[in-house]
C-alpha cells in the first residue's frame, strides 16, 4: 500500500502518528492488525522529508503532523488516479497447463488443493465479516474479499470442469 | 440429545437411493449415498443444478421416501416409518427451510411461526409466546403481524427459519436458503445460522453459495446423485487472517 | 398469425392436460347450470296459461248450458228430477259462487220437447255467434281395471264441432261403437287406446283420448245434473267420456235419465256472466261460464303452479350460485396463471385469448351436456301426465332456449376469462404472480378470540378469514342450497297436510292432481338436490384448490392428514354455518312469497335439524376428500406444483 494512504488520512485534520494508527485500524478492522506502528512512523518521516507534511509543535500526545500545500496537491492527484490491481490468475493457469503438458501432476488435483485453500480462506474472512457490526467500514472491506474469493472459487470450478473434459477427450 | 450413545450420528444414511420414472426415463436422483452427520455438526452440500441435492434433503427430512437404502435419524429408522410417523418426524425432529420460503400466504409472520408448535399440540398461548421469541431472535419482532406478501425476501426467509426452529428440532435442513436473497440478506441469514450452529444445532445446508458452504464444518460435493468429494473445513479462528489478507504499508 | 394461433392452442392443451380435474369440474358446473336453465325455461312455458292454450286449440265454448231437470229416459217416465247439482265451482244461474251449490228442486218432469225448446231459445239469443249441441248426456257407471266410477257420457257426432271440439291426444275421435275418454280421467284410471270399458254392463272399446276446455278435468268434471237417487253426486268424482249419440241415449236409465249439453260461443266472451244473468229463468237451466271452468282449473293447479314457481325460482338461484362459483371460484389461481404467462413475455391480448379459448371450449362442452340432460329431464317436469288439463305438449326445449343457453355459456366463458385478464393487466406482473391474501387491517376480534380454539379450527379460521371473497361465495352458495331444500320440505309438508277427499261409494284413492303435483315435486326435488350437491362439490373443490398451497406447506411441516382435512373443513364450514341458518327462514319466505301470502307449513324441527346437520356433514365430508387425495401423495407435490 502506498504512502499516499497516510497522506490522505492527514487531509481531514492534523494528527499524531498514534491517532493515524487508530483511524487505520477502524477502517481496516482485523486486516489492519498485521500493520505495526513502525511502518507508520517510517512513512511519516519519509513524507516529511519529501516536503509533503510538516511537524507542528509537539503536543502532549506526541508529534502532530500537518499537510503542506504540496501534500494537499499530491492527495488530490492520488484521489483522481484510476488504478486497479491486476487480477493475478495467469500464474495458476500456467501451473495447470504446464502440469498437464509435462504430465507432472494432475491439474484436477492441483485445482482441488487450491479450492480447499480458498475455501479455508473464505471461511476465515466470512467469519470475520460476520463478526463486524452492521455498517462498519471494515465489514465492507471484508465483503469485498469474500466476493473476490467467491469469484476465484467459481473460476476454479470452471477450471475443474474444463480439465476434466480435456482429460476425457 | 442423542438417544443411542454418544458416538452414534444424528443422521446416518447407508446406500440411500431415490429413483424417478422407470425404463428409459429412469432417473437416479440420489444414487447410493452414505452419510453421517454428527450432532452439532454443520454440513454443506454443493453441486450443479439437478444433481439431486434437494431430493437428498427431502429424503433426510422425511418429506419423501427413498427407493432403497437405510436411513436413521436420532437412532430411529426413518424409511420404515408410517405416513403418520413421518409426519411426526417432520413436526418434531426436523426443521425445513426452503429456497422458495413456502410461507403460508394467508397467515401473518407470527402465525406462520406458531404453526408447527400448534401442529405439535402445544397450547395457542405457548405457541404464541415462543413464536414471539423466535421472531425476536431473527430480528423481526416488529413485523410479526405482517403477511408474507408485505415482507422482503430476506425477511420472509428469516420468518421461515424461525418457523423451522419452532419445535426445537434436532436437525435443520435448508435447501438453497439464500438462493433468492441479495448479499445483505445473505449475510443476515449467515449470522443467524452461525449463531444457531454455535448454540449446538445440527445443520445440513444445500447451497450454491461458497460463502455459506465455507461456514460449515464439512463440505460435500455432489454430482449426478452421488457424493464425489468431501472437504473437512477446519480453522477459521481468524488466526491467519492477518497473514493472508493483512494490510501493510510500503516501507 | 398461424404461429400465434398454434401457441394459443398449445397453451390451452397444456393447461387442460395439467389440470384435468379442474377442467372436468368446470364442465360439470357449467353443465349443471345449463341443465338448470333449460328446466327453468321449460317450466316457464308450462306455467304460461295452460287453460287459455287449450281453449284456443279446442274452440272452447264461452258458456255450457244443461237443463237441471233430467228428461225421462225412454220408456220410463214419471220420475222427477228433484235436484240439480254442480261441481265445486259450478254456478247455478249467475250465482257464481264456488263450491257446491245445489239448485232448487226442478219443477215437475219436463219433456224432451220442452227442454230442447228452452235450449233452442238460447241458440238464437242475441250475442250468441256460434253453438254446438245440444248433445245427449247420460250417466252410466263405468267399470274398468277393477274400479267403479261415475261417468258422464256425452253423445257426439263423428264429425268435428264448430264449438268445443276436444283435442285428441291419442287415438282418434269418436267412431261408431267406440268411446273417447277425457285425458285426466283416462290417466287416473290408467286407460289407454285399445282398452275396453264397461258402461252399465256393456263393453265398449276406447278409440281415443282427448282434452277439452268445456268442463274442468277429472275429478271435478261435474255437470249440473239432477240425479235424484244418487245423493251427493257433486261430491263424487265424475269423469267425462265422449261417444256417439245413440250410445249416449241408450245409456240413460229410469233412475238416471237423459240430459243435454249445449255449447255457446258469444260475440264477446267477457259478457258470459251478463248473458247467464239475463237468461237464467229460475233454476231450470244450469250455466257454466268459461271463467268458472278456468277458476276450478286454476284452483286445482294452484299447488302445482306454486311448486313450479318456487322450483323455477330456486333453479334460477342455483344457476346464479354455480355461475358465481365458476366465474369467481378459481380467480386467484387463474390470475396467477395470467401473471405467469405475462412474466414469460406474452402480450395481454394473447393471454386473454388463450384463457378465453380454454373457457369457451369447456363452456360449450358443458352447455351441450347440460342441454342434453335438460332435454331428457324437462318432460318429467313439464309434462307431468294426467292432471295438467291445458298442457297439450309443447316441445320442452325450444330452439330459442338452446340459443339463449349457448349464448349464456359463451358469456360465462367470456366473463371467467375476462375478469382475471383485466385483474392481471391492472396489477403488476409480480403481484399477479403472488396474488397475495388480503392484509388484515387490524387483528379482528374473531381471530383474537379464536386463539383458544383447537389447532385445526384455528388454522381453518385463519385461512377463511384471509380470503373474504371465497368466504362470501361459499356463504351465498350454501344459503341458496339450504333455501332450496327448506322450500322443498315446506311444500312437501304442506302437501301432506292437505285434507284427502272423503271416501265414498266410488272409490277414488287420491286426488290425482295432488298425486301429479307430488310427482312433479319429486322430480323437481331430485333435480334441485342434485344441483345443490353439484354446487357443494364445486365450492368444496374450488376452496381446496385455493387451499392446496397452505395445506401442502402444513403437511411439509408435519401436519397429519386429519389435521389438514380438518383445517380445510373448518375453512369451509365457517361460512357454511351461517348459510345453513339463513337458508331456513329464506326457504320459508320463498314459499310464502310464491303462495301469495297464504299460510306456510313449517317443516318439522326434526327435519330441519336433520337437513342442516346433513348439509354441514356433507360439506365437511366432501372437503376431506381432496385432503385425503393429497395425503396419498408426497407433500412435495403440493409445494412444487405452485411453481411449475
Ligand atoms: N418429482 C420428480 N419426478 C421426476 N424427476 C424428478 C423429480 N424431482 C426431481 N427429479 C429429477 O431428479 C434429479 C435431481 O433433482 P433435484 O434433487 O431437484 O436437484 P437439485 O436440487 O440438485 O437441483 C433431476 O434430474 C430432476 O429432474
Ligand atoms: Mg434443488
Structure report:
The complex is a heterotrimer of chains A (169), B (251) and C (644). Helices cover 66% and strands 5% of the residues of chain A. Chain A has helices spanning 4-9, 17-28, 37-49, 69-80, 90-101, 107-131, 137-168; strands spanning 15-16, 53-55, 64-67. A 3-stranded antiparallel beta sheet of chain A has the order 1-3-2. In chain A, a hairpin with an 8-residue loop joins strand 2 and strand 3 (64-67). The radius of gyration of chain A is 22 Å and the shape is elongated. With 251 residues, chain B is α/β, with parallel strands linked by helices. Helix content of chain B is 33%, strand content 24%. Chain C folds into 3 domains: 1-57 and 324-436, no CATH class; 69-283, no CATH class; 443-644, no CATH class. Chain C has 644 residues and is an alpha+beta fold. The longest helix of chain C has 40 residues, at 290-329. The chains are: A mainly alpha (169), B alpha/beta (251), C alpha+beta (644). Chains in contact: A-B, B-C. The interface between B and C is large, with 40 and 35 residues. Magnesium ion (MG) binds next to helix 1 of chain B.
